[in-house]
Amino acid sequence: MCGLCQGGPPKKITGKQEAALFIQAWWRGTLVRRTLLHAALRACIIQRWWKQMLVKLLERKRHLALDFYVRQEWAVVKLQSWVRMWRIRLRYCRLLHAARIIQIYWRWHNCRTRGFIQGHYIFKESHLNLQLEISLGAQACRVQQCIPLPIKE
């Protein structure tokens, strides 16, 4: 301890002691400033890290919001395309049904005026069984025939 801090009569300080006190004060101040500088640097590092974490968090939130928006838009587009497809298919089925009705009436008209041939056949071993029905207006003719097939063995 220095002579000034002690209780009692003040002592005279020599030039060497004064220089020593000056160097000690300078060194203590340097240590305090260095400690404060290190603490400030550490605080700065922590603040930068925290700001980076906040930026990453904000970017993640933005990405999730964008992803949610894209999924909603995709779902809306998909739903709209399904509705359009359903409406077009419904329209196509109606047109197909109308075309079939027209075909049925046209075939019925042709059969009444021209006649038609209807029949079926069955293969049995080496024979062909044929059954035909020929209609010409109000007249009808049925033909059943068994035809042998020339099959080489």
Automatic annotation (TrEMBL):
<dbReference type="InterPro" id="IPR039887">
    <property type="entry name" value="IQCF"/>
</dbReference>
<dbReference type="GO" id="GO:0005516">
    <property type="term" value="F:calmodulin binding"/>
</dbReference>
<keyword id="KW-0677">Repeat</keyword>
<dbReference type="InterPro" id="IPR000048">
    <property type="entry name" value="IQ_motif_EF-hand-BS"/>
</dbReference>
<dbReference type="Pfam" id="PF00612">
    <property type="entry name" value="IQ"/>
</dbReference>
<protein>
    <submittedName>
        <fullName>IQ domain-containing protein F5 isoform X1</fullName>
    </submittedName>
</protein>
